[in-house]
Design goal:
The protein is α/β, with parallel strands linked by helices. The protein has helices at 171-179, 184-200, 206-218, and strands at residues 2-9, 14-20, 24-31, 36-44, 55-63, 69-78, 83-92, 98-107, 112-121, 129-138, 144-153, 159-167. The protein contains 3 helices and 12 strands.
Length: 221
């Protein structure tokens, strides 16, 4: 079932929400002047007995008023043949706004991930500060990740960055940790946890955050 949501954030208001293991998300947000939004989209295999995590996350945000703030955090931790696509479409229609996107995938076994990040800054959106980051960690040779960052910048006085990287655990770091008495399995767990915590630590809801971090501490990689 698709979770369709249309949200209009009034001037000066704040919208914050965590989407946890939703099979399909289609979220459309319009921000008025001075509004703030912060969302987390998390697909975590095995959490609360959940398996077979697959689906598409589609997040569309339009900053229709000046001085808006947008934060999008997404994490997919997948096993087996699970597959998740996360798409973000952020448009700065007017100036003075900020946006920050951090999207991470951790892929084990034969899982598949895909990220499409569409960031647009309109000609009138001067003084915009926008950042988009996608980082991906492959835990097996069979896992597959596709990433498509897309920036369209039509204003001159802006700050805009994007970055995308996909790799595996650093074997030299694993070896270093083993030399200091940490077994390889535990070392892998510590490194993967650190990679995912960057997203989880930004969750404001302490109960949800603690539940996820506890799960990561107990899981094996």
């Amino acid at each position: 079932m698709v979770n369709d949501q249309m949200v209009n954030i009034k001037s000066g208001e704040t919208f914050e929400k965590v989407f946890l293991n939703e099979p399909e998300i289609n979220l459309h947000i319009v921000q008025e002047a001075g509004s703030h939004m912060k969302i987390h989209v998390l697909n975590i295999s095995g959490l609360s007995g959940n398996s077979g995590v697959s689906g598409t996350n589609n997040i569309t945000v339009e900053q229709a008023g000046e001085g808006c703030s947008t934060e999008i955090y997404a994490l997919a931790y997948l096993h087996d043949h699970e597959s998740v696509t996360t798409e973000t479409h952020v448009t700065h229609a007017v100036g003075g706004g900020t946006s920050n996107q951090l999207v991470k995938f951790v892929l084990a076994d034969q899982s598949r991930g895909r990220f499409v990040g569409d960031l647009k800054i309109a000609p009138d959106a001067q003084k915009t500060d926008a950042h988009q980051t996608n980082r991906n960690l492959l835990l097996s040779e069979e896992a597959e990740m596709r990433t498509q960052p897309q920036l369209e910048i039509y204003a001159d006085d802006v700050k805009a960055t994007h970055g995308a990287s996909t790799g595996q655990l650093d074997e030299s770091v694993l070896f270093y940790m083993q030399q200091r008495g940490i077994d390889k399995q535990k070392a892998r767990q510590l490194l993967v946890n650190a990679f995912m915590k960057e997203v989880v630590e930004t969750i404001s809801d302490e109960k949800i955050k603690t539940n996820i971090l506890t799960f990561f501490e107990e899981d094996t990689f």
